[in-house]
Each structure stands twice: as C-alpha cells, then as structure tokens.
Design goal:
single chain, TIM Barrel, 12 helices, 8 strands
C-alpha cells in the first residue's frame, strides 16, 4: 500500500502524466473529487451543498505555474471566483495556492497577485484561505501570511499540516495573530527528517494541534474524514465549554458525503472544499494517494467509458 501511495505521489508531479490526463479529461474518474472544469459547474456544486446546510470553499485548481502570464491568469481566475461567490450569493470562501500565483517565479509577483485578490475579497466580505503546499514552500508561505494578516486582518487564513514536526511551534508562533487556521494531516510526500513517517504519529500530532489551537481561543477548521478524531473534537469542546462557533469541520468534495450531511444536521458548521478547473491532475492524484483503495473506483470509471 505504501509503494502505491509513493507511486501516486510521484505521478502527481509528472508533466507527461498530467498532459495525458488532460487529454482524457475528468472521464478518468476525477469528477468524483472535482466539481468540474468551469466556474459554472463549481457554482452549481456549491448551491447544492448550501441547500443541504453545508458551506463551501472554492478552489480554482492550479500550482507550479511557469510564467508571469500564467500566474496573472491564475489570479484572474481567483478574482472571477470571488465575483461568482458574490453574484450568486454563495456561502463559500476561496482557497488558493501561492505557487499558482507565481511564488516560484517572484515573491513580489506572488504578493502583488495576492493583494489584488484579498482587496476584492475584503470588499465583498469574503474569506480567503492560503493553502499549504510541500515543505519547500512552508516557511515562505507562513512569512507571506504574516505580512498579509497585518494588511488584511481576518480576511485571510492559513493551513497547517500535522505531519510536519515544526507545526506545533508554528501554531505557537502564529498565536499572536489569532489566526483562522485549517488544520490538516498533510498530503505531500516528505522525508522523515521533516515529517512523521508513521500514520499513528501524524494522527496523534493532529489531535494535539487541534486541542492547542482551540485552547488558544482561535477559530479552528478541523479538516478530516476520520470519525475517531471528529468524535474526539465533539467531546473535547463540550468538556471545556468551547462554543461551536469557534470551530468547523471541513471535508473534501465527493468524500464521506453522508457524514457531512449528518454533522450539518446535528448543528455543526460543515464546510466542503470544492475544487474546479482544468488543472485538476495533481490534486486528483494526491486524493488517490491518501486512500489508494480509490484507485479501483477510477479503473471502473475508465472502463465505463
């Protein structure tokens, strides 16, 4: 199983595999996890979720752009997403990656694109989450978040990954900003020098980070499909009189949908991460790597076509 996971994560970064996937489109089975290739499809997906009492965060997929023009095009797509949220009165946030906005080309280019997006979001009263990418981009992402948090206040939030050893200290260092953090286990392949290699240790650290951030009095987005961790949070906040208004459960589009509905029905805030766009391949492969059993589903989808 670990060999398959490593293979899938390797393929996620393969340009040739990406090109092949784009040729065959969402027929590969990605439509289970991706709302569609257009903003119109994404809007419809969010409307369906909202009708069930579930919130969303939209993500126009893209990462590791190769030119300033591509970075600016990605920024425009984020701006159009914010416009669509506003025009359709969606209960949705926006998520984005810094590499899709040009971080690997120029720090200043990325910041310029981010400032345009956050200014539009602040105008609309919409929240923007900066996703965390691989370890190589971790420190610069936190650095830019701090700059933007000072400029745009509660309009911007961040993601922290539990599989990194440094994340406990990162949360302590960020506490002065009282940030809205999405806490996740982490989906990139990292060496044991920077990340817990064993799932049990990741799970243990994940719970520790959730407890730490909640105890600090900060808004906590608990991003997990793990029912044991969800039950822990439900009981833990009761024992410490932490209101439901201080946290939410976040899940991925197309995964554990009945659980999403059940939690929302029970009165918990539930938010679903809704990705869309033509650059869906890397995201799709990481979802398969998280649960290789999904590969069987993909194979069946391919033969249906």
């Amino acid at each position: 199983m670990q060999v398959m996971r490593n293979t899938l994560l390797y393929l996620a970064k393969s340009q040739s595999s990406n090109a092949l996937a784009k040729r065959y489109g969402l027929r590969l089975g990605a439509n289970r996890f991706v709302a569609g290739e257009t903003i119109e499809a994404a809007v419809q997906a969010v409307k369906t979720l909202n009708q069930k009492g579930i919130l969303a965060t939209l993500d126009h997929l893209g990462e590791f752009v190769g030119s300033e023009e591509e970075a600016k095009a990605s920024a425009e797509a984020c701006l159009r997403t914010l416009d669509a949220i506003q025009e359709n009165e969606l209960h949705s946030h926006l998520s984005l990656k810094l590499t899709q906005l040009g971080l690997d080309i120029s720090r200043d280019l990325c910041l310029s694109n981010l400032r345009r997006i956050l200014a539009r979001a602040k105008q609309y009263g919409t929240f923007v989450r900066i996703d965390m990418e691989d370890y190589a981009h971790n420190e610069i992402t936190i650095e830019l978040f701090k700059i933007l948090r000072r400029e745009f206040g509660e309009t911007v939030g961040l993601v922290i990954q539990a599989y990194l050893y440094k994340s406990e200290q990162d949360i302590a260092d960020l506490n002065e900003f009282h940030p809205n953090l999405r806490l996740v286990k982490g989906a990139y392949k990292e060496p044991s020098s920077v990340a817990f290699p064993d799932k049990a240790d990741v799970d243990k650290n994940f719970v520790k980070l959730i407890d730490q951030h909640l105890l600090n009095g900060n808004y906590t987005a608990v991003a997990t499909h793990d029912e044991a961790i969800i039950r822990h949070v439900q009981q833990w906040v009761i024992d410490r009189s932490i209101p439901r208004s201080q946290f939410e459960f976040q899940m991925l589009y197309g995964i554990r949908t009945p659980l999403q509905v059940d939690l929302a029905t029970e009165g918990y805030t539930v938010r679903v991460y809704v990705p869309y766009g033509v650059d869906w391949y890397g995201y799709f492969m990481r979802r398969l790597a998280e649960r290789p059993a999904n590969v069987g589903f993909v194979v069946k989808s391919m033969f249906k076509h």
